[in-house]
Structures are given as structure tokens and as C-alpha cells.
Amino acid sequence: MSNLRLYADPAFLNRATAFQAIAACGLRPAPASRLGEARALAEARIGAGVAPLAALHRLRRLAPASILIFEERSGLTGVLGVLPLTAAGARALLAGALDLSAPRRDDIAPGFETADALYAMGIASATRDAARAVVSGVVRLRQAHAAIPFYARPVTGDGRRVLIERLRCVPMESGPLMVSPAVEMLGAAA
């Protein structure tokens, strides 16, 4: 089955199904008490530029499922941050004005089901199992919300490869953003 057909598969369109699929990957929403650890992992793997801890707490309050974690016996080994954006947030992102260090309520949708676009703000892992989990999780989120655009800004070669190969993202003409455009839903009314 092609990725476009998979993205448009109605089985992935139900929010509950999407979160069951994410849970099947071993991911769960990060509790507030784990955000510092999640941020430290992201900074260690991605480098400077990770949103400050206070901003992550605000993002979690605005969109509770936007920061997901993966844990193994050794502790927290994976983090996936995907923001549900409003139309204003998507415009701000494209204009280079989305400030994750001071997120605005008008830019962040309260949940994925109300989003106008998705933005992968961070994907980091410390082990192979965590890498599989976070990549599977972001793929499943993309599948569940194929009718809206998905944006990301890769900062590592591995991140760029995952975006191109697994999410079918393409570089945008201006700037470092990549996009996986919205997919017209199969069988949608004209």
C-alpha cells in the first residue's frame, strides 16, 4: 500500500484509534514532572535551540498530548514533540514568527483533532528501541491527521532522512522547513 493510500485510510482518522496506535508504540503524554528530563534528552540529542522548560510546561497546558515520551528500564529514552497548530500558528510558523520560547494560545490548538496543521518541534531518542518508538509515533500521528499539512525543521541528518523517507516531507523553497502536504481524503465529497 502506498504512503498516500495509508495516510488516507479511514482506520487512522479516528482520534481514539490514533492514540491507541501511539500507545501501541509505547509512547504516552509526558507528565509535568518528566518535562525537565525530556528536555534534557532532546537537548543532548538535538543540541541548542530546544524550547525552555517553562515554555514546555505552557505547551503541555495548551495541548496536553503534544509532548510524548518513551521509557525503558533505564529511564526516559525517547521524546516526541508534535504541536497541533491553529491557522494563525501555521501562518506564524511559515513566516518564521512562531516563538516556541513564548507560545501564544492563539497559535496552538488544544488538541490534534482541532488542528489546522501539525509541527514536529522535536524528535529525540537515546536507544534503538526509543528511535523505533518515536519514529513510529510520528508516522502514526501523521497518518491520523493526513488531511492537514505536517511541518518539521530537521536539525540532524538522521532527522532529515526520517522526514523524507518515512513521512514523505519535501523541502520548502524558503528556509529550513520541510512539509508533508495535506492529502485529499479518499472518497471525500467534492
Give an account of the 3D structure.
37% of the residues lie in helices and 19% in strands. It contains 7 helices and 7 strands. The chain has helices at 3-7, 15-24, 35-46, 53-62, 87-94, 128-144, 157-165; strands spanning 27-29, 67-72, 75-85, 117-125, 150-152, 170-171, 178-180. Helix 6 links the parallel strand 4 and strand 5 (150-152). Helix 2 (15-24) packs antiparallel against helix 6 (128-144). It starts with a helix and ends in a 10-residue tail after the last strand.
Can you describe this structure in just a few lines?
The chain has 190 residues and is an alpha+beta fold.
Task: Give the helices and strands, then pairings.
Elements: H1 3-7, H2 15-24, E1 27-29, H3 35-46, H4 53-62, E2 67-72, E3 75-85, H5 87-94, E4 117-125, H6 128-144, E5 150-152, H7 157-165, E6 170-171, E7 178-180
Helix pairs in contact: 2-6
Mean pLDDT: 83
Q: Which spans have pLDDT < 50 for at least 5 consecutive residues?
A: 1-14, 185-190
Give helix and strand order, one letter per element, not per position: HHEHHEEHEHEHEE
What is the helical fraction, as a range of percent? 25-40%
Principal-axes shape call: globular
Provide a count of the helices: 7
Strand content: 15-25%
User: How would you classify the helix and strand content by structural class?
Assistant: alpha+beta
Physical arrangement of strands within the biggest beta sheet: 1-2-3-4-5-7-6
Largest sheet: 7 strands, mixed
Straight-line N-to-C gap: 24 Å
Rg from C-alpha positions?
15 Å
